[in-house]
Amino acid sequence: MVFWSIAITITLVACAALYYAAAMRPVNAVGSGEGLDAQFARMLAGIEADVGAGKLAGPQAIAAKAELAREMLRQKSEAGQAPTRAKPLRIGVVAAGVMLIAGLACGLYAILGRPDLPGEPLASRPEIAARNMNLEEAIARIEARLAIAPDDLRGWTVIAPAYMELQRYADAERAFRRIVELAGPDADRETDLAEALMMQAGGDAAGEAMQLLRSAATRDPAHLRSRFYIAGELTRTGDYTAAVEAWQELIGLAEGNEPWLATARQGLAFAEAGGVAPQDDETQQEAIRGMVEGLAARLQSEGGSVEEWTQLVRAYLVLEDRQAAQAAYEDAVAAYPQAFDRGGLDTLALGAGLSLNGDGQ
Fold first, then answer.
1. Could you give all domains of the chain from N- to C-terminal order, each with its CATH number?
2. 274: which residues sit within 8 A by CB, 6+ positions away?
3. Residue 266 in contact with residue 287, Cβ under 8 Å?
4. What are residue 352's phi and psi, to 5 degrees?
5. Rounded to 10 degrees, what is the CA torsion of 312, 315, 317, 320?
6. pLDDT per residue over 70-119, tens digit each?
């Protein structure tokens, strides 16, 4: 209530100032006194010049000066009358405009504003903490903050992928569960939680993880990540009939040039062959490299989400190409200059020892 009282008072003062400036200031209808004096002086000098040139005789000059003096007195008398003010119609329009602006400002803030939120120093923001210290210190700082503010969604969003990078999968599961509780379930959040459960189980997606993945795919039939995991799990468990169908559905979502398409086709061939690997490790490594390069080319030419940039940096790190990972990270920072947008990406780069300042060191 105190906030709204102050806000309304300030708004009224501002509106009054605008109204006075636009509608209530007097406007003189004639020039100023100084302008008349200057004009009179010029005309008087002209009469003197005519006298000196012999154009006017003495009596004529006196009469001209007298007439000039009378005209000057008349104009000054008119200038001294009440100044002209704005017409009533203009005042009404200005008043209506000022009130409309004030109403819109208060209405928008009532809908979008959050005066109940406390101030938050820059140094306490978790994404800033992650950029200014090593990964362990950043996590400790965020954990301390979350112990005080367990409903801080932003803090959980930053720390969850950090736990995954440190292979603290049980902590990651707890963080992702908290994110789902605070923000509600969606395809990405359920898949994130499923990933944490799978990593704890050594890649096994049975049980709750598979339920989460199926739920994610149901929520968003075009959700690629959950469908990848589902097809992969069906293939891993030997349910090749269902795996073939899952891989085909996934491939059906592609437009034809996606970097993940080669892997999906390999999975489909593997399932169709009843679990017989269609290529050796060296060929598979080349296929992975081709996928990564395809993703990099698309992001460079068309742009993409911050999650896709994170996937590209992680892929380069897996391929042990740190130079390419650093370059990809710097390109991602250029595409997403706001640190909050890159919470998971910055955490990944920090944990991998990449430079966060773009110096490549």
1. 2-112 (no CATH), 279-361 (1.25.40)
2. 240
3. yes
4. -90, -5
5. -130
6. 676 677 666 655 444 444 445 566 566 657 776 766 666 666 666 665 55
